[in-house]
Amino acid sequence: MYETDHPAYKKLGQIGKEITTKVKPRAVVVFSAHWQAGRDSIQVNTAENTDLIYDFYGFPSHYYKEKYPNVGSREIANKVLRLLGEAGIKAEGVKRGLDHGVWASFKCAFEPESNPLNVPIVQVSLFNNEDPIAHYKLGQAVSSLRDENILIIVSGMAVHNLRDLWSTMGDPRPLPYTTSFDEALKQAVTTTPAERKQALADLLKRPDARKAHPTFDHLLPIHIGAGAAGDDVGKRLWTLGEGSMSWAQFRFGELANSSSSL
Question: Which residue ranges does the record assign to the Extradiol ring-cleavage dioxygenase class III enzyme subunit B domain (predicted)?
Answer without folding.
Answer: 5-235
